[in-house]
Structures
1.
Amino acid sequence: MIETYHRLVLRDKEGRVVRDTGKVRCRSYVLQFLQLLEGFFSNVTISAKDIAGASTTIHNRLNQGNFYGRTDAGAGVDTHGVLVGTNVGATPESNDNFKIDTQILHSGIGEAGKLNYQATTFVAPRVVGANIDLDVSRAFINETAGTITVKEIVIYCKNTADTKYHLLLRDVVADQAVLSGQTLTVVYTLRTTA
Amino acid sequence: MRKDSKEKANDVQLLLRLEVRDAQGRLISNTGNIKSKSFVIQWLEGVYSIFRGIAFNATDINNAETEINNGGGYGLSSCLWIQAGVDNGTYGIVIGTGTNAVTNTDYRLQTKIAQGAGAGQMSHGAMIFVTTAIVGANVDFVTKRTFTNNSGAQITVNEAGTYTYNAGHVAHPVHCIIRDKLAVGVDVPDKCSLTVYYTWRTTV
């Protein structure tokens, strides 16, 4: 079993922790996650529903493998990697979710309602006590004058050959207000235990 | 600091089932789906390499550090293959007779059953996949493989797993991503077949 956790850590301007949810077991995986694995494992070309609701390639056996499943978005890139949203439509988690409900976009100049996306980062798999952990995380800085409330978190992967995006994980989370000047860090931990 | 949540949740489950049939196809035994705790470190190393699109080394079945993912070399998607064909005992679902407990850092089956019809060997069928789909409340991706015992004697299977293949690396390294030690060995009489199912399941 792969246990999966998300953790939200909120820090003030000085970097002091204001709130830490701890690791929360989550129920995140959607259909496209196993479709991506199927593509690699069986070496076939697979189409899956992308974030626009269209059926597009999530893995193409005739292209380099590293074109697919990419979540390593850089700073300022709000198209893939870990993303956050406000879930205005109150969309519940479902096996067939294919997009975030209402994404909070990136802004590097403090535009209202937007967060400054830092790079999606990773801690490579390693033995942690009795487990193997892989961490995927991203920090979001509120540079606006107002409060932004995060209600959903996701991971999108990118097909870099065709520039298509697919949802892999989505979690509706307890409201997390990010005040002006604060930084929210979302950490997903994928864990296996023999 | 808050304590970690112990709330029950659904994850990526891996279900293992072993089914033995006689030469006429009649069912002899069926374990039913067993929840497996079988992922070893190379599995998340493979996921990590996909997420980052990088070449990444992991411990292979020869206990050497080799690329589980070549990060795009070779031009075609050539890593993390498990779609082995008939008589290919190198990768895909594999079985063995070892009884050692599983650890996070296992890098191979303890005693893999080789491809063939000699003593202690079994003929490996092709890997078969059932396309990922929503099945009831779950999303399932089924991988399976049939092994036929033509060795002349009964073989008891005590372990199963999945090996990946990196076709894009000159050395074609093989990595173990799953190893299960069965609580009770499964007997496969001579001339009978064993089908091993690994079902990957997610549930929101």
2.
Amino acid sequence: MTTDTIRPTSAPRSAGLGLIPGLAATFSREFSLEMFRRASFIRQFELQTARARDAERFTIPVYLAVGQEFTAAALSMVLPGVPIFAQHRAHGLYLAFGDDPAALRDELLGLPTGCSGGMSGSNAIQGPAIGLVGHSGLMGEQVPIAVGAALASQQPVLTVCGDASVEEDYIYPSLGWAASRPLPVLFVCEDNGLSILTPKAVRRTWSVVDLARSLGVPAVDITDDPWLIAHHAREMSRALPGFINIQTVRHMWHAGTGVDGVPEWDRYQLVRDEMTRMGLSDEVARIEHDTTAQAKEIWA
Amino acid sequence: MTTAETIKAITRDHLTRGHGLLLGQCVTAVGWIGGTVPNCDGIVEIPMTDVAGPAFAVGCALMGRRPIFVVRYQGFMWYNASSLVNYAAKSRQVWGRPCPIFVRSIGMEGNGIGHTASSSLHSLFMHSPGMPVAAPMTPREYRAVWEHFMAHDDPIYVSEHRRSFPLTEDLPAPRHRRADVTLIGISAARLNALNAVARLEAAGLDVDLFHLVWLKPFEPEPALLDSLARTGLGLVVDSDYEVAGAARSFAYELMHRTGVPVHALGLDDRVCGVASHLENITPSATRIYDRVVQLVEAAGTRRRPAQARQHPRLARTAPDAA
């Protein structure tokens, strides 16, 4: 079967999917600046991590969040304190929700002071201080674990997976059970359209948003605009379960520091542009100066 | 009180007074798992998902509810294993976060239930770091395993067997000053071993019988090692598959500790069928009897010919049908 013979049913990938005109302006200046600060730090930390990996300061596989920073940043702004069940490429969540970046660095370096004492590396990190539950490395497994946690605690939980993970056997029964009981789970899919390098259209014809809706879980398919993510996450959290498919762009390889070409879009630059239009260019420059220095200091 | 009633009482106490949960498929239907599941709060019927279901229990464990996870047919553990071995068993060692789940995995065999649902698979879980494995049969043994679970933070794989449910007392463990062979039983094979011992003794062979409850960690009691040293011959019988299974693993371990030949007998290396003549079940008393006789004869002609000649009544097949 070739890609030509498969009919994709998902919404076309777009930097503008689901955008709500004027939405950013409905958030406070402080909200936008703090969200940007978190995303900026993720980017700078990850770039420094890539440099450290390239310099062979460590040699384990690394799953960088460059390009996908604003999903974590936006979620952290509206869902503080919820238990988080994520998978590989979770550096962004770890940093955005506020766990110790030095412990993440040490984990990559394999030190006892790492967030998992060197046992988990990049793809299975945990963040005990922020409620980021460790992931085994088996993608998608965190989703039913999150559902079980919601059942046991009857408190809202956040679970984040990817567009390949939703094809795992774990997902359908998790969505179905969360809808049936119902359980307070916010399902988020970071949909970068790739499973390693295999495009989504090669792997499936169905849409996970359609799947979620068919099971009775309210679902939206949106781009990775942070204000849009924050808006939907906040609204859905009023009556969980809910499902947000976020179309985003992975700038680097699935694992490693390589780059395959120009990304489909650069959300970071798009947000900078929006912040400039909001009259926040000076603040943005200061934040970037600070986060760059902070990230360099951590990796010095 | 039977083993089934003991399980039910333990469960009721855990759910009603211990803030616990019990999760499983169809646990409140058709006999409530042989009368082992109480009718009380805390019972959670999960959907028919043998892949995600155990992960639901993992999430409950991470939230401190110490769930009991029930798998009605132990053969289904091939499909239920992933999150138990890949997450629950690893959680404490990787993230320092306990994930205590009491896995009730119930062995059934024969009676036409076929290859997918039947057999015991405790050997499969013995391979996984971080998960103790037990096979209690009697009420006292079951309660001891439960108390261990509640006193520790590891998930536990409990290889139950339906034949344990009506038992009320500990099983006899005959010992002799001059036994001919040391027999070590696991799970339902213990019941067949007892039957075989009676026939062997009627045939003139004295047998020391030991019952293994904790399969992992495997810590053989001194009396077992002493018995092997005296008899010079051992046989481990199990309800799980023999190839790469618990019986061979323990035989290997015991041989290295004692220098005594220890053999293994478990399920054949073949897929069982539904028809009775195609079943592949726990070694019967007859099979155990025959294997012991064969081993004693072989050992006797090699090491103790005088003693071997003292048993002219030994027959290749037990006097009674198994």
3.
Amino acid sequence: MAIEETILVPPRTSRNYVLMAREVFRGVPIPALLFLVLILVVGMAAPWVAPHDPRAGDLARSLLPPVWSAEGTWTYPLGTDQQGRDILSRLIAGARVSLLVGFTAVGVSGSIGLLLALVAGFYGGWADAVVGRLIDVMLALPFLLIALVLATILEPGVRTVIIVLGLTGWATYARILRGEVLRIRSQDYLKLARVGGCSTTRILFKYITPNLTNTFVVLASLQLGVTILSEATLSFLGIGVRAPEAAWGLMLSEGRQYITFAWWLVVLPGVAIVLTVLSINMLGDWLRVRLDPRLRQVG
Amino acid sequence: MARYFVTRMLQAGITLWLVTVLVFVLVRLSGDPIQLLVSPEATTAEIELVRQNYGLDGPWLDQYVTFLTGALQGDFGSSIRFKEPAMELVLERLPATIKLAAAGMALTIGFGLTVGVISGLRPSGFVDRVGSMIALLGQAVPAFWLAIMLILVFSVQLGWFPTSGYGGFMHMILPAIALSHFSTAALMRLSRSAILDVTGSDYVRLAHLKGVHPFRVATRHVLRNAAIPIVTLASVQLIGMLNGAIVTETIFAWPGVGRLMIDSVNARDFPVIQAGVFVTAVMFIAGNLIVDFTYALLDPRIRY
């Protein structure tokens, strides 16, 4: 009896969880994962972990260099900007903006792309033709141009950036997911579901959508990096996040004119962008290999 | 075959038409240009007169029809800022943008394709290792920051290149790098995986077994079959270049279409925005069409 039990019900020791975690995270780029976790935690807890108010300046202490140069102090470890604001605190506040915009915009554009792909792929015919042309139009226009025009209509700020990036980024999802829907639609189990009397809504969301999950997750992870880069570009061009708020792109555009004598103003925010996007892309590549080896050509 | 060509042409036409609708609506939503045209003291009658002169009276549909008939003849009206034909302004700036894009494409193909192909033929070799790192970094660096860093290092510190402006060969190098780094990284990764796809196939192994010289296998069997995804991506890069042109031209004070567009958006100069977007879209759609037709002629398997 005792023997049978041990065979049928393996003991739930912590060891199993360790093994499971090991299997799930096999081959994960650890530095990228750690950095991203750090940015996530710091970004979410920004108001509590920032040593100073990211918006409060004091001209008496403007353009202090980082701590490792001769005149640097530990009070402002990464130095201060032209208005005497703490760079570290502004970088932390910027992380919050980048993550907020990145995740929401990817959510919005992903949902639009998924819905259009389902409609186009499932109904075919006219719906497919219309969605196909919409995708062509979106891909035929430089997104920055649409963003610029949209930004003149709407009030600049985080919300506008999310709307702009959400409305311009869906074409990639729609194009690739549409192909997936077409592939799934011809499978036998879908025909059976229909013979069995399933409603269209049920077929779309219970039978097709779950099978798109892997592709969707991979696409979204690759788009996240692109979206964060786009947010930085919009803020840099002055149509995204506006002063006195802090965003990495905005910090770079403000620091640009001090390039000759305050290098840290233009170097540090850029390093933050590169490390974040690099980590996201590395994790995205890992996910792609783990979840969907067929998607090699995306991105 | 003829049917395919006609369908694709029609699709391209519809796409272009949708572009004009989208641009027209977006631009009209962004505000009333009339305030920029008249002096603050102008009377209502004067404002109405100006409105009529610029075709800004009447319902949107009428305005759109006027706009479209003009657009078909290449007439986008006069720039509100410069009082010159909008199309001429855009076409005047086009050579500068094309020059920069050509330099960028040359870098992308010369560097990205070469490294990508070598990496694919010799996976985990030296070129592959270094190339993969460059490609990963290249896709994480925003163009505007790369531009600033290039200026900081090569113009401010070393003084090798001018910081900005339009001029000879030396003026073009930094903007071309900033413009092309993203597509270079993308092309590197794609050509590598396209080559790897082909090298694993049976006919390549058979060619090796037959004793065909490795160089001939690479050029005859591998490269030819890997060409399609590579050419597709390279053509799609054109739009990336035009996107990037807005940022790059702004930072390097390069007098191209991108900079003209940013200035026009800020000044709400509708005719110029419309002409610029139209020209951009025509170039991109025509480029795609040419690529599709070339495939159809080269590869009999391709039919959509």
4.
Amino acid sequence: MPGSIKRFEKQFRAVVIAATLLVVASIGCVDYVAGRELSFSVFYLFAVGIATWYLGARFALGIAILSVMVSLAGDLAIGGRYSNRLVPWWNVSITLVFYLFVIALLARLRAVQGILEARVKERTAALRDEMAERERVERELLAISENEQRRIGHDLHDSLGQHLTGVALAGQVLEETLSARGLPEAVDAGKLVDLIEEGISLTRNLAKGLHPIEFETDGLMLALEELAASSSDLFKVACTFECDSPVIVRDRTASGHLYRIAQEAISNSVKHGKSRHISLQLEALDTGIALRVKDDGCGLPDPLPTRAGMGLRIMAHRASIIGGTFEARCDGSGGTLIAVLLRYPEPTGGNVP
Amino acid sequence: MNKPKTNIYLVDDHPLVREWLTNLIHQQPDMAVCGEAETAPEALQGIGRLKPHVAIVDISLKDGSGIELIKSLKSAHPGVAVIVLSMHDENLYAERALRAGARGYIMKRETAKRVISGIRQVLDGNICVSERLTASFARKFVGGAAAQDEPPLGRLSDRELEVFQMLGQGRETRQIAESLHISIKTVQAFCARIKEKLHLHSATELLREAVRWQENQHRS
């Protein structure tokens, strides 16, 4: 590539040199025909200007000297008379100084423009780097928070859950001991065991929220099914999960983000959309896997308030991280539709078992 | 009290659970804990040596799946009745544990109240699962899906069976469509018909049934 650019630059230079010389020659001819009285020095300036801008000050100096020489030669060839033999030389010198002045100005302008261009290029590159870096950091932050949640979920489920199981067993032992001795406190001990078991359920549900997807092939489907059920309970709405044929998402990151998008969409739809029915749909299309959250609420407000906008932005961001497209719009029937399309990565070898 | 006590072996990687489960069992006049283990290999060795009547197994052990342990126990020591204790939801694991050879499944959040009665149930030759799960098994039985060990695949057309098999191999809808040279929509239509014929209610159930069937094929 640099080779072809260099060749192009060389060709361009040759063309500009030829054009400049041609301009000087043509103006020289006209100057000669027009006679001694008319000054053409301003027209030579055109060639000098082109040379300065495209070929540099040194070449432009050459063109300037050439121009005054051509002009002088023409005047001398016409054979005019001057009051003093030095007059034509004086005029030539004045013109030359004028040209030099213009060359200096133009060269300076050109240099400044070059610097500006380079600076803009530099800033653009830096900006692009910064954007890439920021995207990387955002991705990492989300991954960290996801991992942290998973870890806490795991700890809750395993350590605290197991510990509470031990405690419930201890309570049961106490209850049986007390009741064997015929003490009325046995009833309280029994209640205690119930309370601890409720605690285990609570721990499990908390862990489920933090670490929703089991690593099974049907993990995402199961998790969304449970999400629909628990949302119906929690928000007192009719939330259904529709998935006609099995949809398998093997990429854990992708299924994690799809789940969080669904979770956020449901919570938005209840809190901001005031909807009564929410339908969660997962479907394999020809182009990819589609997740849709449809509701019968009041639709998206226009313009979006900052907070709701934030939720949408995070959903869109999650979709972009897993290479999906995100769409949030008012449904035809008045509610809101949130849709994510996760394109298939590449053609699979369908015939390989 | 001349009757010999029922010997119980505990497999759980949480010491507090083992300790208090032991205390609870020892409170029963007719039961005793004869040994305990944290890992599957330890458990296999201990159970082989002590020959307990009942083994209580947590399926999420540190060194891997308790389901595998249940399978090994069933083949090596078929006389030992295994009861599963688990933090996991019964919907997810109970059926799998029972198929692997367990005789009961108790979730840890109800262990304290149910474990003793569960042991007695199993000793009486019964299966110990929650009422909810019993009801769900019964529904399946009435629906016909569990009438034989195998799902009634005879009702499926050749093409439907092919799709069912591929689902069981863990293939995605798109892969199935590609290898059968049909559209994804057609695969989905097949799935809908299979669900209807096998009395399955959701895509999740369909996938699980297909995987289970595939596993059985491999075994036999």
